[in-house]
Amino acid sequence: MEEKLKEIMILEKEALDSLLKLLEEQFSLLIKKDVFALDSMVDKIKLCNKDVAEYEVKRRGILKNLSLKEVIQNSSDKELKSIFNDIKFILNDLKIQKDSNDLLIKQNLSFTTKMLSHINPKRTPSTYNSYGKIKR
């Protein structure tokens, strides 16, 4: 079981590495504001996510109802423990990169929305509420 688990975790680690590289590439495209290249990144990220999910399903199939942490702790295989630790670090880096990308996307979207509202303001006449403030 440990050998199969090790093989699957190596493949999962490689898939997570490639996902991290894609997210880093997405970050640089967000900085450059290259919209067309960003659009193509979506499909690449989806494919990579699919690969990660497949390996996770295989790993869960091998473990059945056992906890991965418990299996790793009870194992005497140092390589398996090393792979597990590498995956934990990669997952942490993925979370940080994803959060950074999300923040940049939200900032750019907010800026674009504000610019569009200035370029093309509402055409409906404003009305006032009972406090004398403009209703929107």
Features:
bacterial flagellum biogenesis; two-stranded antiparallel sheet; FlgN protein; single chain; 136 residues; mainly alpha; elongated; FlgN-like; FlgN-like_sf; Methane Monooxygenase Hydroxylase, Chain G, domain 1
Could you walk me through the main structural features you see in this protein, from its secondary elements to its overall organization?
Keywords: Bacterial flagellum biogenesis. One of its GO terms (biological process) is bacterial-type flagellum assembly. This is FlgN protein. InterPro entries: FlgN-like, FlgN-like_sf. The structure is a single chain. The chain has 136 residues and is mainly α. The chain has one domain: Up-down Bundle (Methane Monooxygenase Hydroxylase, Chain G, domain 1), CATH 1.20.58. Helix content is 80%, strand content 3%. Strand 1 and strand 2 (134-135) form a beta hairpin. Helix 1 (2-32) packs parallel to helix 4. The longest helix has 42 residues, at 78-119. The protein starts with a helix and ends with a strand. The mean pLDDT is 90.
Tell me about the largest β-sheet.
2 strands, antiparallel
Taking all residues together, what is the mean pLDDT? 90
Helix content: over 70%
User: Mind telling me the C-alpha Rg?
Assistant: 23 Å
What is the β-strand count?
Answer: 2
Give the H and E element order: HHHHEE
Q: Count up the domains.
A: 1
Percentage of β-strand residues? under 5%
How far is the N terminus from the C terminus?
Answer: 63 Å
Determine the structural class based on helices, strands and strand pairing. mainly alpha
What is the approximate shape? Answer: elongated
The largest beta-sheet arranges its strands as: 1-2
So how many helices? 4
Low-confidence stretches: none
Note the quaternary state here: single chain
CATH architecture: Up-down Bundle
CATH topology category name: Methane Monooxygenase Hydroxylase, Chain G, domain 1
| CATH hierarchy, class | Mainly Alpha
CATH homolog superfamily: FlgN-like
